Each structure stands twice: as C-alpha cells, then as structure tokens.
Amino acid sequence: MRLFDDLADFSLAELDSLIELAGHLDRNPEPRALEGKVLSLLFLNPSLRTLASFQAAMVRLGGGSFVISPEMSIHGLESRDGIVMDGAAAEHIREAVPVIASYGDAIGVRAFAERDNLEDDLADRRFRELAALTDVPLINMESAINHPCQSLADWKTMDDLAMPKQGGRFVLSWAYHPLALPLAVPAATVHMAALRGMDVTVLRPDGFELPEAVMDKARAAAELSGGSVSETDDRREAMDGAHVIYAKSWSSTRHYGDQLGDQGLRQELVDWCVDEPWFENAKPDCRFMHCLPVRRGVVVADRILDGPRSVVIEEARNRMVAQMAVLYRMLKG
Amino acid sequence: MRLFDDLADFSLAELDSLIELAGHLDRNPEPRALEGKVLSLLFLNPSLRTLASFQAAMVRLGGGSFVISPEMSIHGLESRDGIVMDGAAAEHIREAVPVIASYGDAIGVRAFAERDNLEDDLADRRFRELAALTDVPLINMESAINHPCQSLADWKTMDDLAMPKQGGRFVLSWAYHPLALPLAVPAATVHMAALRGMDVTVLRPDGFELPEAVMDKARAAAELSGGSVSETDDRREAMDGAHVIYAKSWSSTRHYGDQLGDQGLRQELVDWCVDEPWFENAKPDCRFMHCLPVRRGVVVADRILDGPRSVVIEEARNRMVAQMAVLYRMLKG
Amino acid sequence: MRLFDDLADFSLAELDSLIELAGHLDRNPEPRALEGKVLSLLFLNPSLRTLASFQAAMVRLGGGSFVISPEMSIHGLESRDGIVMDGAAAEHIREAVPVIASYGDAIGVRAFAERDNLEDDLADRRFRELAALTDVPLINMESAINHPCQSLADWKTMDDLAMPKQGGRFVLSWAYHPLALPLAVPAATVHMAALRGMDVTVLRPDGFELPEAVMDKARAAAELSGGSVSETDDRREAMDGAHVIYAKSWSSTRHYGDQLGDQGLRQELVDWCVDEPWFENAKPDCRFMHCLPVRRGVVVADRILDGPRSVVIEEARNRMVAQMAVLYRMLKG
Fold it and tell me: Does one domain contain both A118 and A217?
C-alpha cells in the first residue's frame, strides 16, 4: 500500500482484511515488525489523538516517528506558488514536504480545509497539492474533505460491537457548535457507513445539507454494498430503530466560507444537542459515536457521554489500532 | 505495580528493591525489556527533567513514549464538571485522559497544585480526579502534594553516596525565591528522608511552617523507620552535624493562595540563600541537594552549586535511573 | 569519536571513511545497531531539518532521542555567569546542559551566533561555553561559525553526483535576503569545499567579504588537499566553468552586529538572486546547492529550484544519512 487517503480506494474485501489485521496486531503484538522504520508526521493543523495515536502505533510495531508542526518551523510555511518570499515565511512547502518525507519510509499529512471555496475543498485541492510534492507512501491524517483513519477506526468500533452491516441503521446527525467546522468528518463518515452496507440517514437542520458531491459519493458506496443513504431534518423519523447516532457539527454549505451567514443560521440551533430524549424510538441499546474532541453540554449532554451509550473512547483507541494495520501494510517489507 | 503515586504505598523492602533494580538496569542495560511498550506522558504543567528523563528511560528499555502538553491541545483542556463548553476549551479532561491513557501501557501525569485551597491541595484533589479517569497503570509525575519520582531519585542519590540511614542528619531548608512555589517537593522530601530512617530537621522562617498534615505523615514514616522529624527557624541548630541540606522554596502556608500576603512575608527573607557560612557546624563533607531548576544567587550561591558539596546533577540523572526501575516493574510482562 | 564539531578535526581519510559508512548504512540498514541508546537534542534556536533528521537517524539505528527546545523550558534559560537569577529565567545552562546530557549517550547542541561581537562568534565562544559544561560525546548541530553536519552532507551529495574533487570548481555565492544571517553555513561551506580539494571561489558583493579568519582556515584546508580558494565580486569570472554554485546569504562583516549599517548595504543588492543567466558560462550541468530553508524568488528563482540543476532535497536527505554515520561511530559499542 502506497497511499491511504480514501476508503473508496479499497475493495470491501481489502477493508475487511485491514480491520482483521488491526485486531490481530492488537491481540498479538509484533514489536519488531517495523524495526528501524520511520514515519514522518507533518501537521499543518493542530492535533491530539492523531499526534498521539500515530506515535504510539509506530512504537508498538518497533519503529519510530518524528513530528513537524507549524509552530515549530522558523516562520511558518509558505504555500503560494510563484511568490517572492520577502515576508515572514522562511520556507516553502515545495521544499518542506519533500525534505520531511525524505526522512521517513512513509509520511502522514494533516491539512484542514481552507474554507474559502467549496469546490476547492470538495476536490481536496490543498491536500492534493501537498501529496503531489512527494513519492513517499502517504497517509491522509485529515484533509479538507476526508479522514480515512477516523473512518477505519469507526468501522472497526462498530465491528467490535457486532453492529449489523446489512440492516444496521446509522444516523449521522449535525449538532450545534459555536464555530463553523470543516466537512471532513461528516463527509468521510456518511461514506464509511454507506460502504459498510448500513442504512444511513443524515439528520440535519435546513441549511446544513451536505454538499451534493458528498451525498453522491455515499450513494455510490451504498449501491456497491447494499446499503442506503437518505437525509431528513426530522429527528423522530431519523432515529426510528437506529443502532447508532454519530454526532458532528459542520459548516452550512449554503454559507460556506461566510462566517456571518453561517452564524446567523446556526445561532437558532442550540437545541441540536444530543440528549436522552433523542433516543426515544431508537433501538434500546443505540450507541453514541463522535470523533472527538467534543464540547460537553453543547454537542452532547454529559449523561450520554458518561453513560453506556457512548463508545467515543473505544473509537479513539481504535484510531491507534487501525493505523497499526495501515502502517504494517505500508511499511512491512 | 499499577500505581506509582506515593512512597508511602510501598514497604521499606519494596523501596530498597526498586532502588537496587534501578542501579542494576543502569549498570546492565536491557534494551529489549519493554520492546513495543508505550508510555503516555500527559503534562498539564511545564517540565524539562521529567519530560526528558521519562522519554530517555523508555528508549533505554526498548520502548517509547509520546508527549501531550497543554499548549499542544487545540484550545486547552476543560476540567470543570457539568459545564456547558461554549467557550475556548474544545476538549474536556473526561475524554482527554482516558483517550491518551488508552494509547499507552502506562500513563504519567503531571498536574501542579491549583493553590486556591490548601485542603484540596493536601488531599491532591486535582490529581485524584485525573487518576480516577483511567484504569491504565499510572505514574505521578508531580502533583499538588507529591513527587514520588523525585523522592526515589533523591533516596538513590544518598545511597550512592553511602550517606547513613540511621543517624544520618537531613536538613530540609526553605530558601528565598521571588515566587510562591508549590508544596509538592518539600512534602515529598520530608517524608522520603524520614522514611529512609534519617533524623530530619525542617528549617524554615516563621510563617513558612509546613502544613500539619505533611508533618504528621513524615512523623509516621519516621516511626516506621526509626528516624525522627523536627522543625526550627534556627539555622545553626538545624545544621549541627548535618550530612546534607536539601534546599527548596515553598509558599507560606499561612497565606496559602494569597499572593500579596505571601509576598509581604517573603520579601524580608532574601538572605535565605544557601551559602558556605551555613555549613559552619555541619559535617565537613555535608552535601547540597536540590530538585532543580534552581535560581543561582537566589536560592543558593554559585560557589555551592559549582563546588564539591553539590550533587544536583547526580539527583537529576537518578530521575531517569529510578524511573527505569518503576517502568520495568510496571510494564515488564 | 567523542566530538563532532569541525571537519578540520578529521583527516581526509577519516572523512572519506565516514561518508562511506553513511552510504553503507543507507543501503544496508542496521536497525539494532544502537538499541537502547539515547541522543539528547538541545536546541537553543529553531530547527526543522536538524530536528527531524537526527530523530529519524536514531530510529533507523534502533535507538531514540528526546528534544529540549527553549520554548519548552519553564521561563527560558539563563546563560550569564555570576548573575542573581531574580528575573524571568528559572534555570541556568550550567545545570540544564549537564542534566540534559546526562540522560543521553551523546548530546547534540544548536546555538546560533549572538552577533554582538565578531571575535566572539569567530571563536565560537557561546558554543565552547556550552560544550565545556559536559563530558558526554557531543555533536555541533550548528554554532556561530560552524555546521559540520551540513558540510558532511554536502560533501556526500557531491560524491553521490560524482562531482570531481581535484579540478572541481565550487562557487560559494552570497545571495540577497531581507535579514542579516549568521556566518555558520558560509564559513563551514568554504572550508568543506576547499578540504574536498576543489577550486573554490567566494562570490560576494563589496562589503560582504568573509572574515579573514574564515578565509585563512579555508586556505589552509586547500593547501592540505590540493585545492584552492579565491574571492571576487565578478559573477562571470566566478561562474566560469563552475561545477556547482552554493548560494547562501550572510551578514556584512563590515557592519557585523549593526543591523542598520547592514541593511543600508544590503538593500541595493536585491538582484543577487540566483537565476538561469548566472549559469551562462558555467558547466552545462552545473548544480545548485543550498542548505535550506531558502526564500524563493529572493535567494534563488523558482525555475532553478524546480529544475534539474537543484540538488537541495538530496542535500537535506543526506543530513540524515551523514548523521547516521556520525552517531554510529560515536555510539556503537
């Protein structure tokens, strides 16, 4: 494997095999598998889980890693083409990325959406530009429109819970948050759940529809796997018989890149905080998922996070476990 | 071993055995003992020695570690219960601690005193709350009222110097410092020296008595080990026949959490800077100890730190060595 | 090897052997060579390549490292002697350096020029003071006047390209940059190329002559190796038949430590930006070298960096490879 950027690049059999390998490596440590191997970790945006879980994954397999994050570089990294660099930035990504990649056997890159232009972000333009700068095997550690490591971990978490694929009802719900957040996690999640063969409902208020390109990709995955994808703003309808609700806030597509317009729409929606009444007509053991970090009392009530529905810690731990499988496939001789 | 939080949790035989193991691992490296093992390091306060020595200890034993410190997290970590997180903090410790712990085979946590309330700090409330969030084996890397890694290193440093246990005279002396500092090191140190069987004198100016709970715990340790504990503000009396003086500044208990009150008392005490005349009636080879960092010319004179009395570098190196023993006991299969 | 501070400390045969070892370790990994070994990395100035390449080098050889950089320490590090530390700095380098060194089997130290006083910087006074504080094997990771790791990597890069030693024409050229930069790289580079036996021309505008001590050292190296050293401000003359141009900006020696005087001289020299016309009378395949980071459109034109002349990524990767050889010689039992 030379690229881990999108679950859509893999067959269902390949994904099952990756998840099986993840579980196997978790139960049967191989602390010399990647001895002497190096993972370069380039963060253009902040991180906690990704930073920690990739470092831990490499140690568990006997290798190691190093981290470059923007606050470490001398004066930030320039990314514009053809620019005369007479300002603050002392280094261009055209040098930084290939150099950092050259020290590793693989490189992980995190680059969030710029959220100036929806088309650019849907095309993952910034991440594509960074990825094009190196031939070293590459892992997407969250880009404008994807987060394949999170999705693989979430898939495994549902497998661990023996949650049904065919017939499993998966609700991806928008939730309130004071800030306009990127589309990467919702876009990756709706696709992942559809690809897993589940009946996926996107529950979101008016104005927060996911972009058509995101929905189309999820529908294509559902067609492949025997799942389905629908959307609604009706909570009762969405939660009917649900096995799991996956909460996440995201920007208004309608006001993409327009902070004020988004705020105007968003400020009326503070009641979109997942709480026990939401589960009224769901399966009795309906689970709560979230990629973290999560704002308590804003996105979800404390009693959900602290109660038996929540599997957010399991999801986070599975980040490390899933990434071990990816790294093993990518780096084991 | 699943918890290394307080020397008081261990028998004298267990502590001797830990220190013997530390020396053994230092002389006879075991670079594969912990292969594939991960130590999670969570710093809620800054660090130099602890940060470096734990990372080095894990590498020497063949494992690895990762570091999360507050400036890395997206917007700081919220710790208040039941709060609606609509401010700057994007993550709560109730998620952060179990997630970070889940990537490791053990976790080290540093959380200094909040110094709002003496009772809370004496009860190590903040650290207890963090520790209660995970079942993973846990190491106290300095809390409000304890610093067991420092104490184990200091114990070993005195053993290395063949400093007597029974009959050894240990002076813990307050020293001047421009800021009001936490009680963790003096509290841990008076207890450690008493537990080691030494005759311990706490030398401090009026207003800087250690809290009664701290003195009681040290006296109980002395009872167990055959040592003794006393306190005085008389330098000559304290230093009479001393084998070692351990200098450290700390807050005024009388003005705990009251910055102005503490300053008023403190500003008259700039002559509490350890210098050669202090040693007039001590043992000729009386040693100087300090946990570092130390302010030269403020806490202690240059000629002491740079002279033969000082063993501060040996103490600091023994941090790594002592921690290797703790990690070995905690993580070796 | 206990010190890697200056290529001048090694014979030509020793340098050839180091470079051969570097290539050997690159082609034939030895992922257990340094198991359990620790490299302490102390940065008193920022870094990207050095930070990443040393960490990666240690992992590839089976050991590990830890990083201390100034923003991590509690309140910065004091370095003045005899000072009463009642200000912001909580720790003195007289403790910090030996402590950090004591956790490693070797220590790397980066300390840029202070650029107050040319004599001090030419004597590498700051770095000498830091180095004198420890007996642990030590690597210069760039000091006021040297950068031996960069020079070893550059030497290997030219070997990889089969660039001639005797008769090879090496141009070290000053280039425009908005800031007055240190002398470490130009001083190390002119010496390295001369020691490699090349005919070295220093091309620089009036006022940017390298200090006499730097030129004298390079001339002595040329004498040893059969190379030569000259200087000029005439671009055509310098580039005539050149195999390689190594671009770098540096401070005006004439206005050393005088920011305004330097700027007055520098601001007229924005056309010192390496571009294709510079290569008119050079060898057709004349290469472009730079230590990075480099300002595009300021120091060098995009088309050079992005074209076939540039070997800057190879130089950067060779940092890791060359350092592996240094670490292997220093730390392998």
Answer: no
